Structures are given as structure tokens and as C-alpha cells.
Amino acid sequence: MFDSRLKDLLGIKYPIFQGGMAWVATSELAAAVSEAGGLGIIAAGNAPGEYVRDEIRKLKEMTDKPFGVNIMLLSPFVEDVVNIICEEGVPVVTTGAGNPGKFLQRLKNHNIKVIPVVPSVSLAKRLEKQGVDALIVEGTEAGGHIGEITTMALVPQVCDAVSIPVIAAGGIADGRGVVAALALGANGVQLGTRFVCSTEAKVHQNYKDKLINAKDRDALVTGRSTGHPVRVIKNQFTREFMELEKAGTSLEDLEKMGSGRLRLAVVDGDVDKGSVMSGQIAGMINDIKPCREIIEQLIKQAKEALGGLNGQEGGERNE
Sign (positive/negative) of CA torsion 221, 224, 229, 235? Predict the structure, then answer.
């Protein structure tokens, strides 16, 4: 079902990435995904470097499998985080919110595989020339900070434009999504929202319940007026925020209003006044289960979907 490019490059069983979600992608979640055969990823977010070091060391106590750290390039601690990642021997780095070119050579000098998240063909081509190892191509269906192009439209265009491996992200929750991503030309997939609703995700139960109870139209986009759109589940906070946007509230005041809202939802469990970041696939999630079961189900469903397309029994196909 999967080709071997990402598996050989990263030493993983399945080319299934767990998204680097701030406040969600902790060492516990990343270790569980890696143990299940995927690539678990710790989110550095806006956290200080020593927090990231602690998370890396905690993960290493839980698994000896490959893992990654997601660097948020706009973080005020990004220089420190990059240094610590190099010191701690992290095998894979994913990046978001910009171009990692400034740090690329330093990371490569430490034999770290660098895989940026990209929302456009132009950035994908630029990063390939700079020497990144693969690309996470994320469509607007994803949760959190998003671009404007859908996964269905963006992934094949990037696959046609570059020769390095491509990981599709945004709008993937089950095996049917995996097969669709492969059909578009991707070599693997990244899931975020589905892994939030895992037993190993150290997320407040209220947040998980909010995702499980979400319907197909509950994930909407705020912040378009700021130039930094964010997909979240609608609640009291989104209603108030969008009313201020419509009223022409200044960028500074909108940023103040949004500050700390993700932590409020993820850690404190206030899913009315907090920011419940989620992809559009929240309506497809109806349970909480271990990461291993999530990945095993993805593979099983994908085989069945492929078998159906070929008029065969899904179980007759190899992984």
C-alpha cells in the first residue's frame, strides 16, 4: 500500500505522522504514536528551550523508536529550541510558520531530517532547492493555523512540482482519507485532530468531548482579517471574536483577545471561552482510543478501501 521512501528515510513502519499541535503534542502522545509504528512529534510551540529538552528526554524513556520535534519558527525561543534539538540528537524536525532555511544547515550538520509544513507550490519548490528531506503539504481543512488551498487541490500540484517525498495533511481521519492521499500522489499522511482524541493525548476531557460532539459544519475559520486564519470549533469565544472582526477591531486588540485561548481550552478545559482548534474532520470522530488502535484501524480501513476499488478483499493486500 505504501511505498518505501518515507519508511526508509525515517526508519518507521508506517508513513503516518502525528501533527505537531501546541499544548497537545506532548512526549506521551508522541511516544505512543512512535511505538505504534508512526512518527510521533513533540510540539515546541512557543515553549522555552528547556521545556522542549525535558519533553525529548521523557519521550526517550518511553520509546527507542524514531520521533520528531515540530519547531514553530515564529517562537521567541526558536534559536534556543534549535540548539537543544541538535544537542539532544532528535532524528526528525518538522517546521511551521515560515521558511526554515536559516536553520537548515545547522540541523543537517547534526544528521537531522528536516520536513517543513507548506501551504503552497511556490514554497514547496523553494524548500526542495534548499535541501529539505520531505514536505508536509497541508490543506485548508486542517485545524489551527491554515492556508487557503484544499488538500485535494494542493497535494497533486506539489507532487507534480517536486521530487522529494510528500506527506498529505488536512482533512484525513480514516483509511479512506489515507487512500485518497496516496491516490493524489502523496507518500504518507499526517493526522492531527484524530490523535487529539486518543487515550494518550494529555488534553482536558472537555476538549475531547467537544470534538466528539462536533458536527460537519462546526469547524469554522477565525482571524481572516488578521492575515493569520485559524480553524476552530465554534463556541462563545469564536462568536465574540468574529463580531469584533466584523466591527473592524484593530489587529493588536484581536491578538490580545486570542492570547492564551488555546491553553485555556486544552489544559483548563474551558471550551466555551477557549480556542478549540480542530480540523474539518471533527464530525468523523466519535470515540477515544489508544494510538495503536487508531493506526491499526487506519491501515485496516485503507486496505479495505483499496480492496473495494480493485474488486478484491482488503485483507488480501500487503501493507
Answer: negative
Please state, in angstroms and rounded to a whole number, the distance separating the CA atoms of residues 162 and 168. 14
Listed range (157-161, 224-228, 273-277) with the worst mean pLDDT: 224-228
Given the DSSP bridges, would you call strands 144-145 and 230-233 parallel, antiparallel or unpaired? Answer: antiparallel
pLDDT of 168 higher than 50: yes
Give CA separation, 218 vs 21, 133, 145, 191, 210, in Å.
Answer: 19, 35, 16, 19, 10
Q: Are the C-beta atoms of residues 79 and 58 closer than 8 Å to each other?
A: no
What are the φ/ψ torsions at residue 71 (nearest 5 degrees)? -100, 125
Half-sphere exposure of 281 (CA within 13 A, CB side): 23
Query: Measured on CA atoms in the order 136, 101, 39, 214, is the torsion positive or negative?
Result: negative
Beta strands in 52-207 (DSSP E): 67-72, 92-96, 113-118, 135-138, 144-145, 166-169, 188-191
Is the separation of the CB atoms in 233 and 278 below 8 Å?
yes
d(CA 96, CA 270): 26
Which phi and psi angles does 113 have, rounded to 5°? -75, 130
Using DSSP's 3-state secondary structure scheme, residue 7 falls into: helix
- DSSP code of residue 111: T
How many Cα atoms within 13 Å fall on the side-chain side of residue 240?
12
At which residue does the C-alpha cell 482548534 appear? Answer: 277
- Which residues on neighbouring strands pair with residue 115, listed in sequence order? 94
Please give the Cα distance from 280 to 63 (Å, whole number).
Answer: 31
C-alpha cell at 283: 464530525
